[in-house]
Amino acid sequence: MFTIFMLLKTTPTWLAKSPPERFAFVDEVIRPLLRDNPEVKLRFFESEGFNARTSDIAMWQTDSLSAWQAVVEKLRETAFWDRYFQVTEILPAVENAFAAHYGVAPLAG
């Protein structure tokens, strides 16, 4: 399982939207993208109260990097990418890879 952390910074355009407009965008754009790519899961975290550079973190999980790439390509064609959020960093990771490599029980799981 791959976990990909996408560090985001909200833009003034996103912040100018009302909460109902933001939720409408999620319902109209993000949820259909996830339905079309069920092998990719998304969790969303807010961090603006703790970090000035990163306002949000999208945590994606998948077993298929090709499915992940398809989601990214589609996401880049929406207002999410660079209009509503600046994607500042993408950090792919494998949970407990060190422990798995040495056959040791993971710390959490």
What keyword list fits this structure?
4 helices; 109 residues; globular; 36% helix; Alpha-Beta Plaits
Which strand order does the major sheet show?
A: 2-3-1-4
Tally the beta strands: 4
Structural class: alpha+beta
Largest sheet geometry = 4 strands, antiparallel
**What form results from the Cα inertia axes?**
globular
Please tell me the overall pLDDT: 93
Characterize the structure shown.
With 109 residues, the protein is an alpha+beta fold. It has one domain: Alpha-Beta Plaits. Helices cover 36% and strands 30% of the residues. The chain is built from 4 helices and 4 strands. Strands 2-3-1-4 form a 4-stranded antiparallel β-sheet. The longest helix has 18 residues. The chain is globular and about 50 Å long. The N and C termini lie close together (12 Å).
Briefly, what is this?
This protein is an alpha+beta fold and 109 residues long.
Lay out the secondary structure.
Elements lengths: L1 E9 L1 H4 L3 H18 L3 E7 L9 E7 L2 H12 L8 E10 L2 H5 L8
Antiparallel strand pairs: 1-3, 1-4, 2-3
